[in-house]
């Protein structure tokens, strides 16, 4: 996850991204069948085999298994500075805080990522409640520099009325293009 690029990234737009991970199989958040499927997924998601062959497994973040997540998940803990070497963590934070602006887009009726608020770096507690960003260690300890960027007024939170990635031409014209050109 240590990504070295030639050139400079000025702005970063996350459009419905599972930035703080997901807690359920897409389109399957509740009900007896979904509860059973998600229970099975929860039991196996951190096995190396699944982590290495099923890309979405790298986005699972179970608040009841954060130690296992940090140790065994092959992707998200490194991107969010919850795992990795001190040097890698410093590089991630430096790269993130060097951005000019950040756009975080959440879809109000998202059925692909659960919780949908993960798009705004919010996470669930062990009881299944979505936590306010300001109540998380991730934010308060400024793992990637999000707090620093918010304090500097460089983070835009945007909501779109729709399901996952169901944005309109007007959203592209009025939100995405101006942001990327700024």
TrEMBL record:
<keyword id="KW-0378">Hydrolase</keyword>
<dbReference type="InterPro" id="IPR029058">
    <property type="entry name" value="AB_hydrolase_fold"/>
</dbReference>
<dbReference type="GO" id="GO:0005764">
    <property type="term" value="C:lysosome"/>
</dbReference>
<dbReference type="GO" id="GO:0016790">
    <property type="term" value="F:thiolester hydrolase activity"/>
</dbReference>
<protein>
    <recommendedName>
        <fullName>Palmitoyl-protein thioesterase 1</fullName>
    </recommendedName>
</protein>
<dbReference type="Pfam" id="PF02089">
    <property type="entry name" value="Palm_thioest"/>
</dbReference>
